[in-house]
Fold:
Amino acid sequence: MASFKPTKIPIYPKLGEKVTQDTVYWKNYKAPVQIKEFGAVTNIHFSPVAPHNYAVTAFTRIHIYGPFSQEPVKSFTRFKDTAYCGRYRSDGQLLVAGCEDSVVRLFDVSGKVALRMFKGHTKAVHVTDFTSERYHIFTGSDDYTCRLWDIPNATELNTYQEHTDYIRCGVTSKLNRDLFITGSYDHTLKLFDARVDKSVITMDHGQPVESVLLYPSEGLVVSAGGRYVKVWDLLKGGQPLVSLKNHHKTVTSLCLSSNGQRLLSASLDRHVKVYNTTNFRVVHNFDYAASVLSLALAPDDESIIVGMTNGVLSIKHRKSPEESKEVSHQQRRRPSYRVFVKGKNYMPKQDDYLVSKPVREYLTKYDKHLKKFNISKALDSALKPEVTVAVIKELDRRGTLKNALAGRDEKALSELLHFITKNMVDFRFAPVLVPAANMILDIYRSVIGQSPVVDRQLLYLQDLLQKEINYQQELLDVLGMLDTLFASSVPRKELLSQPHSDSFMLFVYFKFKTKNSKEIKKKGERNI
Amino acid sequence: MVEHGDIRVVHRGGIARYCRFLCERGIFCCCRFLLCGSGYEVKVFSTSTEECIHDLRAHTDLVTGVLLRPSNHLQAYSCSTDGTVRLWDYTDGILIKTYVIGYPIYSIYTSANHSGVLFVVTPTSDKRSEFQLVAVHLPQSGDQLVEAREFSAVLSDVSSNPAATSFGRGGEYIASAKGLQLEVYFFKKQKPYRFFLKEDNKKGGKNTFTCLACHPKDDCIATGHEDGKIRLWRNFNHKKEYTYTTLHWHHSAVSSLCFTPEGTNLLSGGIESVLVQWRYNQESQRDFLPRLGAAITHIAVSPDGALFCTSHSDNKITIIRSSIQVSAVIQGLVKGDSVRTDLMVDPRSKALVLNGKPGHLQFYSLQRDKLLYNLDIVQQEYIHQSGLEQFEVVKAAFDAYGNWLATVEERKQKPTELELNLKLWAFDEQTQSFMLNTTISAPHEARITAMCFCHSTDSQTTVLVSVSKDGHFKAWQLAPATHTEDEGPSWSCDFVGAYHSLVPECCCFSADGSLLAVSFQEVVTVWSPASWELLTTLSQPPGAIRNLCFGQLTCSKYLLGTTDKNLLCCWNLLTCSLEWSTSMDVSLLLSDPFSENMAAFCCQAGCTDLFVFKPSEPRPLFSHKAVCLGKVTRAVFAPREKMLESCEETSQWLNHSQLYFVTQYMDLLTFTTKAEEDRLMASSKQLVISDSVAMTPFSVLLGKRSQQEGQEAASSLLAERTQLPQGSAAVRELLQTPAHVLPSTSFLCSMFVESLLISVTDNRKKGRTIYNYFIVAQQHFMSKIE
Structure:
């Protein structure tokens, strides 16, 4: 005697975003903390040393925030005009910033007044950075020059006048004290060596360069300009590796995740995209309320900080492990431990005869009813839409669906109709629910007009079907257009290629569905 | 059976070899044995071990009934349509007597009160469709073969269904039902009473009688009806004042009824496959044994009432304890209406795989002629109800190593609402069975007509190709998991192909997996599975392609196809041209994967002919006219465990593999060679000898001894030569063989001891010598074992 086989609930394909390792990782952040700054946030830079404060450059100020503070722990306000590019030195002691008034200021993190003022540029300085040996500063300015300064003497060491437009981004090498890269609005990236008087490598980006990023290994450099993000191989003399075009507005900022496996790009189109650095595919996407100007990741990806044009600084902190678990599993009250292990922890002795207990099979409520052929009850006891549809399908297979639907009072019938109107347009359930709805109309045709509740629902159903039909017709129009496009673009071949046949199948499906809905519509009209 | 040279066609497949006449009533003989008519023979099963103990073979036609002899419970009657009743000693499997009746017999009844009389149902001599119940007086004679001449008709116009007639309490009356009429014949009064029912009752149920049982201790007749009702008739010795009560649980016809020997319970069964036990006089109390697997055809109870047995429509007997618990299942090859899937051979277990129980695939071991297991494909509760459309397994395919199994199940309510599921099963090493890996619902728009795996042995990925009536063929491939929530790799569609919107029919991979041939009506297209490019097309109009087959091994450059316009074509794929063609109406073409041979079944005038040939030469190697009646629907080449070394030209094609085929009447047949049959016969004889040695070793020893005495006296010379037990070749062989390859010691012991015995001509010393040798031998044996 075989045991009863429970009803199989089919697993329907989930619609929408596919859940990958990356989505799990990048979704694991708390709701963002929003801080209003005085103006557009142009730069965010993390201190390399713990506790990893970060400097936020916005309008005429630089605010320093602690890792979890919502108020600035410190602010530098002695700027005459808009400040640019506040960056920490590698020991986290000094901070340098450019300014619209062409003066570069150097601050002690604990002080308030600038330690040094470097004057020499003639226009706004948008790029400043420390070199890796810590005693020099590199700056780039709108006067098309970039300069090297000595910190102790506050003197200019060298000037490079190679760019032919504003220099808006740049970065120094962390491994070599003499190398730095600049990106300019003249569409080029240049690699400079402090030991010689001119650039070593020039790379043509093709768009005004907005941001430059060096890989930790410093073999690759990433540049952003226009809608493009490009990766260059420095070891091959600046050969372009990849060109990515995933944003639909200018890309403004770049950043690498802490392990160097993911690249993040921020754009004026209000998106931050995450790329896999092995195949350069987009693996995740963040949406923001306004155009993003600056982006930074805390060490270990503990938080994502984004500065926007409307002056809002958005900080997302990573969830702690307990928090992320709490969300995924809702804690259910379980029987107490004592009850749970009762008799289970008894160890059989040597000469004990073990009587094995047959494993008891637990059936769900609807399966219990199905086992006893209580078909109406089985239908009523199925709750979730997938389960209900599976039970309807099972009843249809048993040839007893009509009996299960029949003989209902007003309340039970309106519940059933409610379920059908709610789920019938779902394409996963339509093939099962359309015949069921047909059957209901057939069964209760004679009692239409006796209950206002049921009548209202039937009218609603009619309305819904009309809408669905219109919708399907529109879709068919679109598909027809698409097919002509496909036909003109794809060279004629004997075999159908995969996408083509998919669209064909979609077409067939829609056709099928429309036909069904029309059928039921007709029935409905006839009855009502 | 058909004789042809030294190759014979033989039947295979468990309990009932003829599906058209599934196992006839099983009857119990005490609690230990179960007798059951099966085809031309009666089988004796052990109720505890489920093994078949004896095949009682003597009838030359179908056995229709088996019955215990009331006066001696160690003997049983069997009747057959060959017109004989035979009396058997079923414990030893010996035919005692044969009574020749002269008319085909459809059922047999006896009662303890009517000694020397058998009641048989035979057709009336003038009309074959009408049957009568005849009492046959058995002549007292010592001969083996007796002709019974004394007949007297009891009832005319009875049903040929054995369940529709039964003896009443103490054999006082016999009741028989046919159509809407119940007839009771009282032997004392010598007159029948007839009771009629209306054709339909008020609620539209059908009142037709289906079966009948009489209470053993009470005047009560239980009848089963078409509409599922059971009526209990009482007071039927009056013409007018009879009464009946109605019991209703079954929703469709009751097919069998049976009272327990004490009459306390009534058992009933039908198509619902639920055994219902009603308490006599307390009919509201019922016990159920549901989900027995298939419709119940017969119910029998053992004479002591401890065991029930039900026989089912799927070639199965279930033995049930009186506490309504299944104790044993005797299962033959499960036979449905047709084999929808092809015959296949599981590459791992070498078992034959085909449709089994509804929604299952059965694995049938050909070597042991036994059902291994049923694999549940549909995984849905089967509703036993006639006229219900259920999911059925229609296609199945194994890959080259048996790691993957693909199945297609379909359910067709209306032509537009076809439900299709493609399921892929992975072999699990731990559980040693197939586990569901992927379910693809609606893989095609229309019915799948063919499906095959790529049989290449070296490629990394497995490809499955399915061909459907919707005009496409699809290639499915195992893809690694892309999502985090998935545990393992699953199958997905890799390619969809079509050709000029023609409907594809069959597909076939070449032996090395480098080519795929798909037939589109009369065009054969050849594709490369590596790039999915159309390489070439071959066609031989007119006539759509019916079968496609690649040659194997050295003939792998040939592609063979048969068309429905009676043409067998062989294309050479190197030149892409027709090599040869011949006009034959081939209904089935298949290739032997273990040799170059191909087999073609041709249907002609109600018979099927077989031709075996090599693609390289259009001359047949072997041909066999009229292999069987009707059409051969499916066939398969199964590998042999051990290669045969036959060098005769006609039987060489059977060296590597064996050809099994199924006819349209669901008979499973195969070919055997003479040498093989001889070997089988020899081994079965050996088994018979060792079987009869059952009791205690000592009694056997003496018994055997006394039998062989006469012969051994003659061969005294030989005995003297083999004085020492160690000198015997058999003993040496036994002792030198490694222990792990030997059969169990209990099996060997008697033969071994026998071989050690030395016959002594001196009659005076006989008894003692034997005893001495026995001791010596046993000690020797024991020491060797230790």
